[in-house]
Design a protein that fits this description.
By secondary structure, this protein is of the alpha/beta class. The protein is 35% helix and 17% strand. The protein starts with 28 loop residues before the first strand and ends with a helix.
């Protein structure tokens, strides 16, 4: 396009009128948190989800699952939830207390 200013006679022509601004639809991001606790941790993360959704208007979908299981089973349950979700998760977190389980459970997850 030329850097010359527009002619007054061209300003009212249909091909010169600006196109209406169409907002780009942003797809929501889906995130999963699977926790060992069934009451406290889900309540904390649901409160965080409410704060996020109030600011970003449902663009971030945070699913919180309190499974109440050991470390290895939490990992497998999180994996199964990912496979069962049609939308796909952008991030998956597994939250557990390291004091309650032996160290070999953590080594198993890293391999």
């Amino acid at each position: 396009m030329s850097l010359k200013p527009l002619k007054k006679s061209d300003l009212n022509k249909s091909w010169m009128k600006p196109k209406p601004d169409r907002g780009m639809k942003i797809q929501p991001e889906y995130h999963l948190i699977v926790s060992e606790g069934t009451d406290t941790e889900p309540a904390y993360f649901e409160a965080i989800a409410d704060i996020i959704n109030s600011q970003y208007r449902k663009r971030i979908q945070l699913e919180v699952a309190g499974e109440g299981d050991n470390t290895i089973n939490l990992f497998w349950k999180a994996k199964q939830r990912v496979l069962d979700n049609a939308n796909g998760y952008r991030h998956v977190w597994v939250v557990y207390d390291t004091d309650d389980f032996p160290a070999e459970h953590f080594a198993t997850l890293n391999n």
